[in-house]
Amino acid sequence: MIESHASIWDSCLSIIKSNLTEKSFNTWFKPIKSIKFETNILTIQVPNKFFYDYIEEHYLTTLKKTIYQVLGPKGQLEYKFLLENNSSKSKEKRFSSKDIKNPFIIPGLKKTKIQSNLITKYTFENYIEGDCNRLGRSAGLSICRKPGGTAFNPLVIYGDVGLGKTHLAHAIGNEIIKNFNNHNVLYLTTETFTNQIVSAIKNGTMDDLINYYQLIDTLIIDDIQFLAGREKTQDIFFNIFNQLQQTGKQIILTSDRPPKDLQGISERLINRFKWGLTADLKSPDFETRLAIVEHKMGTDVENVPKNVMEYICFNIKNNIRELEGVMISLLAQANLNNRFINIELAKEIIQKFVTQVNKGITVENIAKLVADHFQVPIETLSSKTRKRQVVIARQLSMYLAKNYTKSSLKTIGDNFGGKDHSTVIYSINTVRDLIDTDSIFKDTVAELEKKVELSLMT
Prior knowledge:
This protein is α/β, with parallel strands linked by helices. Helices cover 53% and strands 11% of the residues. The protein folds into four domains: 5-96, 2-Layer Sandwich (GMP Synthetase, Chain A, domain 3), CATH 3.30.300.180; 134-280, P-loop containing nucleotide triphosphate hydrolases (Rossmann fold, 3-Layer(aba) Sandwich); 286-359, Helicase, Ruva Protein, domain 3 (Orthogonal Bundle); 363-457, Chromosomal Replication Initiator Protein Dnaa, Chain: A (Orthogonal Bundle), CATH 1.10.1750.
């Protein structure tokens, strides 16, 4: 039975609609009409040349894949549109899907096990459960039994620095691989994902990159808040997100805040982040902190008096990494200097640790250091001036503050004239981009980092 051009185009529209937002589909594809179908060539009528140019720029790959699915490798598509003077003469452009042997799978790649990038030591066995993380941990275990098949898709894990977001994300990935040997899990940071996009655009390999992501069964992306301000990367991630969702694949994201508070990220992405479960990780209570310390110490726990562990857990409250650091320092002091582990030693280490992190270097210290380097008045960093020298100094100060202090993005922004989260993130991303593209700027950053590290030792 020979299909009519209308039914063929309807089949194409059905596929296209599933990959776009309703608004995009209604704007760019609903007005298109099919005209004829002859010798494997489907001819469509677009309203005008603007439509044609826009579709060519933004949806050509989607059209090629769709024509391949509906008409096979010999299928071709032909545009027709009226000239701007409304004459009856038409312009035509034709493309073929013959050059796409398989638009969904890179030949040979499916046979290769994808490197997961997971840290194997991060497991559920050493992820201590408490009221602070019970929801996220329970949801993660459910996902491990049926990845992509639960209501927790996507799973968004959010919380402050040092509360175990990355550990939990890795634990889920490791458990999935343990349960499903042929399951492709991929973990990467938002920065790595963005670098992949930039490289694909530069090398003209975007189709290959998107095809690659279609082979992933569980995708884990860390620190999704750093997508802020990266519109092209967001567009591509939106398409990847949709394709994975529609094929029943699992998506896990981490963030330093809930989706509703993410700034600089498109509303359509935020809406998709809300489709599944958003689980927050809070600061662990005293009992959970104590359990974490006992677990982390392993066999060394017998050498540490109970009252010492309780003293440490009472004084280190909001950051698990900081808690681990104190314990490592405690054991090192005892072993290397042959000292008894007691309250006095614990107090000495905590004071040194907190002094080094919180008092040795602050956002204000960094701002002064950078201002001196660029020879600009420190007060200009908090002003609204857009002088290039000041803007660079301000952005660098925010970048270093994020790397060398435990201040939140809000606190960092407050120190520079009340800048909001998105401005701080944008500044951090700008510095990272300049480091990658400007060798002189990279050397400047390295020099400032040395100065910051030296100030930590004094």
